[in-house]
Amino acid sequence: MKKYTAIDLFCGAGGLTCGLEQAGFRVLAGVELLNIAAETYRHNHKKTLLLEGDICNLSPTEVMSALGLKPGELSLLAGCPPCQGFSSLRTRKKHASAEDRRNELVFEFVRWVKVFLPKCIMMENVPALAKDTRMTYAIAQLKDLGFLIDATSLRIDDIADYGVPQRRKRMIFTASRFGSVEQPKPSEIKATVKEAIAWLPKAGESGDPLHDLPEMRSEKIGKLISLIPKDGGSRKDLPPEYWLECHKRYPNGFRDVYGRMRWEDVSPTITGGCHNPSKGRFLHPEENRAITLREAALLQTFPKDYYFSLRRGKDSAALMIGNALPPEFIRQQGQAILTHLESVD
After folding, report:
1. 293 with 285: CB under 8 angstroms?
2. Each residue of 19-65: pLDDT tens digit?
3. Which of the chain's termini has less CB crowding within 10 Å, N or C?
4. What are phi and psi of 28, to 5 degrees?
5. Residue 80 known to be catalytic
6. Which residues are bridge partners to 26 per DSSP?
């Protein structure tokens, strides 16, 4: 049985739990509000207690008792409070962003820390949270609880530097009550799109539901996609007569839409619109289609057989994949924390 334990707050489809387990943690429990994400999490992590519901209505004291823990015994409390209120698109609309109630979930994380008093904590989120006054206030409370927080505790990382074949900047915050956590070292060698997905069988004929879902495209869009140059081409490479009306109105905006990924590069950020080429550079490097949901999950570094529920359709599954934390990025962060805990012991 694994010695080091963790709890995953706001666990979603399980990317953080997956990464922590790969690092060597035993994840005791996860908390998730959305039913479809909870269904996916439960299917992949059958030995983990899943608390399905609003975290604001849960008692961390009761959860701690149910798990047979006492304050200070949990190795790691980790989580990614829903970040839509801090996303780059939302923060351009200052008023809507400031009033998003999900912004306050950062303090739910702190509430659980106060009860469990874990040895270490880890919070992941969008970069904008790092500069928000809520994070400043949360850090002040965590310092009062005895966590050592130094210049390296809060940082902005590009996950492409940590073995993920994807360009994606994220805030990562780690701290311990027993000293400084040495951060994992970035790699100079990047994982590529080719390494992640080129080995897959032909989409539509694989027997994997995530890889075989059909596309529904108009003849006009199908023709446009076929004309995009292979291996990194863009809609900007097309003659103007093939441009869509919205692209003609905004010729310099959203340049990545209807763009192809490049085999020997990392992918763009995998979002909830990753199956739709009108949402970003989500066309396959060679084939005249968008990437499949399985390809998107692999670019997020999920295991090749990781289950995502399709009960609510393709859009819902894509949103789970796009919102997930890349397991490989979390694995490396988790291993750094594990090394720290071993040195403390």
Report:
1. no
2. 999 999 999 999 999 999 999 999 999 999 999 999 999 999 999 99
3. N
4. -80, -35
5. no
6. 5
- Assessment of whether the complete model's pTM goes beyond 0.90: yes
| Helical segments of 84-237, H only | 88-91, 94-99, 106-116, 133-144, 193-197, 209-212, 219-227
Residue 332 CB contacts under 8 Å (≥ 6 apart), including other chains:
23, 162, 163, 184
- Look at the chain and report how many structural domains it folds into: 2
Residue ranges of E strands in 159-292: 169-176
φ/ψ of 152, rounded to 5, equals -95, -5
The single-letter DSSP state of residue 125 is E
Catalytic residue among 83, 120, 246, 274: 83
From residue 69, alpha-carbon distances to 61, 73, 145 in Å are 10, 6, 18
Structural domain span for residue 14: 5-187+325-344
The tens digit of pLDDT for each residue in 217-243 reads 999 899 999 999 999 999 888 877 777
User: Is the same domain home to 229 and 98?
Assistant: no
